[in-house]
Amino acid sequence: MTSTADNSTTAASSGQPRLGVAFVPVVPPERLRSLVVAAEESGLDDFWVWEDCFKESGVASAAAALAWTERVRVGIGLMPAPLRNVALTAMEIATLERMFPGRVLPGVGHGVQSWMGQVGNRAASPLTLLREYSDALRRLLHGEKVTVEGKYVNLTDVKLDWPPLTPPKLWVGGEGPKTLKLTGEVGDGSMLSFAGSDTELGERVQLVREGVQAKAPALAGVGHEISVGQIAATGPDAQARVDAELPIWGRKPGPGNGVAGDAATVAADVRRLHRLGCTTVILQPTSDEPDLEGFIRFLGQEVRPLLAP
């Protein structure tokens, strides 16, 4: 008998993974236009902006990126639930989806707790908040009139005047085991912040699948997207740059942590992550990447063609 995890991995690893790039907010906002245009023109599937405190607005960045392009999907990862009233988030997502249908990938998470503490919005139970928030946000985006009295989310007869004609998939992200299960349960897609070794990634994908199955046992994860981030570099000193970058994001150099090399090497790692159950791979340039536009074109024009099944 084949296990649920095996079925899920097989389904996710069939076909071709989506390939995206992260617009890391260490890059100033005025660079956004040239980078998203490079992603569009080079053939990348996705372009992800971040909403890290206290750097750049994910929604403002996504709106501009969508307006400057016609094809590429634009993700927002992750909007911190404690920082945003859920009705406001629903209004912003709905507005973007109606203006740019089918290209918005909204993502929410419970935020970095130290940052949430800085703004006075640290939740005693981030998991409870994320569950309440995701449920209310989904219902609002589906055009429902929502009344809810939760520990954190409280709404009375709230209904969007302009809900999306087709509700976008809601992505939920996080890192801990309980959060990963929750992303599978309350999201249409799950965002994993880093790749890691086959064992590490396999364990995290399995936790997501368990959450999906708790929500809908008959589906066994079919249709649930999983994205994963991976730091990448090419060209001279690529490995040294990746190894120097990893500690900035709390990771140590080692098997599966980052990828450095030519197009064939990067494509092989993307296929590895896809084989382990990730439907979308988001490659993140190093902070000292000397040519961001060139890096994006490298991904779209040289790496992506190598991913065809």
Descriptive overview:
Residues 27-256 form the Luciferase-like domain. GO terms for molecular function: oxidoreductase activity, acting on paired donors, with incorporation or reduction of molecular oxygen. Keywords: Oxidoreductase. With 309 residues, this protein is of the alpha/beta class. It has a single domain (4-307), classed as Luciferase-like domain (TIM Barrel, Alpha-Beta Barrel). The protein is built from eleven helices and eleven strands. It has helices at residues 4-13, 32-42, 58-67, 86-99, 113-118, 126-141, 177-186, 198-215, 238-245, 263-275, 292-303; strands at residues 18-23, 46-49, 73-80, 104-109, 146-149, 154-158, 171-174, 189-192, 225-233, 259-260, 280-285. An eight-stranded parallel β-barrel has the order 1-2-3-4-7-8-9-11, surrounded by eight helices. Helix 2 (32-42) runs parallel beside helix 11, helix 6 packs parallel to helix 7 and helix 10 (263-275) packs across helix 11. The longest helix has 18 residues, at 198-215. The chain starts with a helix and ends in a 6-residue tail after the last helix.
Output the strand order for the largest sheet: 1-2-3-4-7-8-9-11
**What is the count of β-strands?**
11
**Number of helical segments with 4 or more residues:** 11
Predict the CATH topology. TIM Barrel
What is the straight-line distance between the termini?
A: 27 Å
Summarize the biggest pleated sheet: 8 strands, parallel, barrel
Shape: globular
The top level CATH class name: Alpha Beta
Q: How would you state the average pLDDT, rounded?
A: 93
Q: Helix proportion of residues, in percent?
A: 40-55%
Q: Can you tell me the residue ranges where pLDDT is under 50 for at least 5 consecutive residues?
A: 1-13
How are helices and strands ordered from N to C? HEHEHEHEHHEEEHEHEHEHEH
